[in-house]
Amino acid sequence: MKVDSFGQSPLLFLEVVKILKKRDISYAVIGAFAASFYGVIRASIDIDAIISINKIAANINDLLDDLKRSGYKITFRMGDQADPIGAVINVEDKYKNRVDLLMNIRSIDDDVFKRSVQTSFMDQNINIIGLEDFIAMKIFAGSPKDLNDVRGVIDISGNGFNSTLLKKLLTKQGNKALKILDALIKKQNS
Fold first, then answer.
1. Residues 6+ apart with CB under 8 A from 89
2. pLDDT of residue 82
3. Average pLDDT of each block of 10 consecutive residues along the chain (190 residues)?
4. Which helix (H) or strand (E) holds 45?
5. Residues 116 and 33 reside in one and the same domain
6. DSSP 3-state assignment of 6?
7. What pLDDT, on a 0 to 100 scale, did the predictor assign at position 172?
8. Are residues 145 and 72 in the same domain?
9. Is 51 helix (H, G, I), strand (E, B) or coil?
10. Residue 53 has what pLDDT?
11. Residues 65 and 140 occupy one common structural domain
């Protein structure tokens, strides 16, 4: 199935995944699409994914060139020192569907790709961020929307996550992150 109108960012994402796979770039879906995978339905007009790309500029430029050759409008932005996101590639098709590829997120290490969950979507295998990494990333982001995603995932999964791994991931972010998790779990258990 090909993209033929607005509102089909998931189909655009499948095309982008083919390019990432061709370049052997690890990725994992995050954001609203990942939240829905874990049972929390939230509307979004784009698909967000994290990617692991060698820091060599040529590799980024090769990916950007591949995306442009495929006919997509590309915007590349580098984050500054205060930004928790190192860089973002916005991929947009002629229908205004969008995929955002995020790189070098401060709270995430490359092991996130080993822990990702593979699932089938539209007869294509895709990688979704692992549950514990999803929760940790959302707590780190800390917006009301992000914390609502965490509440929903905890409500749905119960204690179906690896609390040791999750606490290890959150420890990198400090005691505040652990306190937020504890408060969300207590609320779920009450």
1. 51, 63, 64, 67, 74, 75, 76, 100, 101, 103
2. 83
3. 91 97 94 95 93 73 96 94 90 98 88 97 97 95 93 88 93 88 82
4. none
5. yes
6. coil
7. 84
8. no
9. strand
10. 78
11. no
Beta strands in the chain (DSSP E): 26-30, 46-52, 73-78, 85-92, 98-105, 117-121, 124-128
Query: Is 108 strand, coil or helix?
Result: coil
Angle between helical axes of 175-189 and 131-141 (0-180°, round to 10): 110
- Cα dihedral: 120, 55, 138, 37 (round 10): 0
Range of the structural domain that residue 188 is part of: 131-190
88 and 146 inside one domain: no
Tracing tokens 């967000």 back to the chain, one arrives at: 48
A 10 A CB-CB count for 110 gives: 8
Do strands 117-121 and 124-128 pair parallel, antiparallel, or not at all (unpaired)? antiparallel
Per-residue model confidence (pLDDT) at position 2: 87
State residue 119's pLDDT score. 97
Specify the pTM. Answer: 0.91
Residue tagged 């040791």 (tokens) = 164
Could you read off the pLDDT of 36-53 as tens digits, one per residue?
Answer: 999 999 889 999 999 997
Cα separation, 116 vs 28, whole angstroms: 6
Q: Are strands 98-105 and 46-52 parallel, antiparallel or unpaired?
A: parallel
> How many domains does the structure of the chain reveal?
2
Short-list 106, 124, 126, CA closest to 116: 126
